[in-house]
Amino acid sequence: MQEPFEREPSDTLPKDTQEETPTGAQLLPDEIYAEQERKEKAKKALRFAATHVGWATAVLVGAWMSLQIVVSVIAGLMGSEGVAFYNKYLLVINEATLAVGIAVAAAILLSVRRVNINKNPISASGFLKILVMCFGAGYVGNQIGTFVLSIWNFATGNSVGDELVTLLDGMNPLIMFISVGVLAPILEELFFRKFLTDRLRVFGETLAILLPAFLFALFHMSASQMVYAFTIGVLMGYLYCRTGNYWLSVLVHAIFNTVSGVIPVLFLPRLNAFTLEMDTLMETNAAVFESMDTAALAELMMPLLEEYGLILGLYALYALAIFVINITGVVLLIVNFRKFREGKGEHSLPAKEAAKTVFKTSGMIVCTLLLTVLTVVSLFA
Length: 381
Description:
By secondary structure, this protein is mostly helical. It has helices spanning 29-77, 80-88, 90-109, 124-156, 163-168, 173-200, 205-219, 223-243, 246-284, 286-291, 294-336, 351-358, 362-378. It has one domain (18-378). Helix 1 (29-77) crosses helix 13, helix 4 (124-156) runs antiparallel to helix 8 and helix 7 (205-219) packs antiparallel against helix 8 (223-243).
């Protein structure tokens, strides 16, 4: 049973392709020529794959957003009932249109060679370690995203926040869970891990993990979510490459979305109501609060605590548990970072050569520009 940071001995690639590429000083002239030929072949294959991956991702987003516009227009033409239906089932509509976009994108990827990644079991402790590290990575990424947004808001006078929390606030809990906790992980992992990683694994694990994670981050088109989407995408890609089990990455994604996205939003209505009543209480009894009279304050606060005490206690326990998990995840990331050992691929290239090859292709240029522009636009929304 494989631990998460053990080096995987083999995928479906020949054994000799997993050895380290020898340096020029170690090669004879004929071998140098053969190595150059191998690199040119690898670059050609990578250009082909990266072009299709980039165009597939761009088409996915274009089809997805176009369908959302079409559905919203149809809902508007149906009058108030149509608009009400659209608003109620917005999250489900979002995932349904995303599924259509993925189907269209999948057709573009059909001509790109796939590598079937062998299924390797992982221990329960190994899976739990990856899961906790996802929370740690999400925490760090979220702090970076929040910091960047705060600078942006200060510099521009805007008030851009976390779009996901705004979108989910007030949604039906069941619809929210089905959409964010079930459908989104299944669909997003299907495209970014299963479809993309299977086609990039032949170029080595590093590229097969980082490129889908990069596109996954851009796909969110949100400055507040981009950094943590990338870090979590890296870990889910790593889990998929080492286990070959798509459903394990779906499970990690689903747990993360539910715990960090769905559950806190469920607390919001009651917490907002408490905050509103607390503000009113402080305004109408300013003299008591300024005097800091313990007995008077206790008398004022008691009805409020009786009504909201349970929800405040539950939220405090939730916040404490998440804090402990996040810090544990950060520690595990630091400890295990250097334990990563890349599994080579048939067409592995040095990192710089691979990056130059990928980002000079038309598909990746268009995809990166499109998603970057949409992310920038979201900052002014």
